[in-house]
């Protein structure tokens, strides 16, 4: 039964080639061709069921979005969400979004150096046991990989409900010499703005009254320069 179910999901994904990418390594260095334009590429790593990527893709039509996850079933559910969102906007095909099946451990095989402008890490698995810390998506070994594929405007936007993961991540960003901006220990208390799109996990945790931790990390040279120019503004 389970096998038949999985086969059915894979067939469903294979029939959605305009939206779903099952072999992202084939497109390394060629994502502009996939989208048919040169707009900046923003990726969400560990997208889950696709609430964030679908919302972002209709809100920011000048950006190409790629949501990545390693489970077929999540890609399928995200594809339904993206199509529903785009249908709701009266758009024919979700042209500026792709859903890619892949393990983030191999991210350098999916994107060429400088091909990505922004990485979103939303509610990444916290991996509480010390022996699993290397799997955390903000571990320095991942930050090294992200640095390679981000371009001069490159930034990482990170949010989580896990105080422990947030603490670890701030230390990891600092340890590899990355500048942080707009750090929030309680994102939904007052400072939230209209541009904010919530993820599934975020909606759930906010509904339970839990604090959400967030920060932006400047990676590319131009992003760092812009940050340096405006960093004192919030203290004025
Ligand atoms: C806790 S969920 C968060 C989902 C979504 N970002 C949200 O905020 O609602 C973490 C997601 O990351 C995915 N994930 C974890 N490790 C991954 C990896 N190495 N490669 C690809 N996806 C991964 C999981 O399958 C899961 O969908």
TrEMBL record:
Catalytic activities: guanosine(46) in tRNA + S-adenosyl-L-methionine = N(7)-methylguanosine(46) in tRNA + S-adenosyl-L-homocysteine
Pfam families for the chain: Methyltransf_4
CC annotations in GO: tRNA methyltransferase complex
Keyword entries, A-Z: Methyltransferase, S-adenosyl-L-methionine, Transferase, tRNA processing
Endpoints of the signal sequence: none
Pathway: tRNA modification; N(7)-methylguanine-tRNA biosynthesis
MF terms (GO), sorted A to Z: tRNA (guanine(46)-N7)-methyltransferase activity
Residues involved in substrate binding: 129, 161, 199-202
Protein name, entry field: tRNA (guanine-N(7)-)-methyltransferase
Gene name of the record: trmB
Binding site for S-adenosyl-L-methionine: 44, 69, 103, 125
Family: Belongs to the class I-like SAM-binding methyltransferase superfamily. TrmB family.
HAMAP family tied to this protein: tRNA_methyltr_TrmB (MF_01057)
Function (record text): Catalyzes the formation of N(7)-methylguanine at position 46 (m7G46) in tRNA.
PANTHER family xref list: 3-DEOXY-D-MANNO-OCTULOSONIC-ACID TRANSFERASE/TRNA GUANINE-N 7 - -METHYLTRANSFERASE (PTHR23417), PENTACOTRIPEPTIDE-REPEAT REGION OF PRORP DOMAIN-CONTAINING PROTEIN (PTHR23417:SF14)
EC nos: 2.1.1.33
Broad enzyme group: transferase
Family matches, as NCBIfam families: PRK00121.2-2, tRNA (guanosine(46)-N7)-methyltransferase TrmB
Domain of life assignment: Bacteria
Organism of origin: Paenibacillus mellifer
